[in-house]
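Researcher: Structure prediction, please.
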Amino acid sequence: MESVVVETLLANRRVAWVAADESLTVISIVDSTGLLGPTGGWLGEPLPHVLPELVGSEPDLEAILSGRVDPLHIEFIEREDQAGLTVYVRMVVVAGNSDAARVGSKLYCIFEDMTDLGISRQRLTQSRNDLLLAQRSLAGAVLDLQTSNAELHRLTDMKSVFVSVAAHELRTPLAVISSYADLLAQGVVGELNNRQLQSLGIIRDGAERLLQITANLLDMTRIESGRLELVLHVLDLGELVASIVEEQRPLFEQANLDLSLSIEPALPLALLDELRATQIVVNLLSNARKYTPGGGTVQVALGCSADLSELRLAVSDTGVGIAPEDQPEIGTWLFRAKSAKEISAKGVGLGLYITRSLVELHGGRFWFESTPGAGSVFHVTFLAADGS
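Model: Predicted structure follows.
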């Protein structure tokens, strides 16, 4: 009856044991759930033969029997149970006392099923190993990225130096060409006929256009290297915009375009770098004029943004518009939309890139809406001097 109760308790806990005598020979096995796998033929065998985990531990087992050392604990032993499933067990080796004269006459190897904990531990170990591998891989990727970034910075610096030197070297001869074209047109070396004057006009326009390109290239290199600094003042943006529109009006009239200006009354003052703010407005007007066919209209509107902390300038046109696939690239370095080629617009794709960069340096925002064939509206904002 007692053995039945013991086996029932062991079955519920899935515990088993193997007992050996003083010669370390197996004398009994209790394994009602098959935790230890097939145990046939174990009886009468040396304990280390049936439990390989104990091979080489014979001196320790004898010391446990004599009471010289504490019980032996071995965690997470991987075995295959009687059903052929992989299980993890904990083994405790203890001595069993038979009488008062002897410390121990039997050695008990007690096994407890630890499969759930063993699997969790294995998964944790695997996760830890995967994490270590990922960390090493990430460290390698970071190192590669740092190396690539360093090389990119080096190449960018080389490009900036080259562009800056080239632009500076071009400005002087271009200025000379433009000046001599003006002198020749004024008749300093003699009267010129209409055909000669027209040729000089083409020369001068080309030189001025190249001078503008070199100026844009210099601005680009300053922006990319972080050397372009603004000198901010509290100014009347409405007056500045109105004066720029009037200066640009003759160019719009020559292009047969109607240019209008609308400014909300009582606008707050703005925080501006006057030179760079002028450049922003001129670039937006030049862009609208360039992409609007003759007979079209360009409207300039200045007012407060919804939160009153910004002033918003909008330049709208009835030009060719921008294709949807090109719109995400507008305002990026050296990008020109397909519409520029369709109407043979001059330029290298720096104007809106510099405009957006200057707006962002002012702490403002740059965005646009455009419909192919119906025109575009470009918006920029400037911080109000008394905005909160």
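Model: The longest strand covers residues 86-96.
Researcher: Thanks, that helps.
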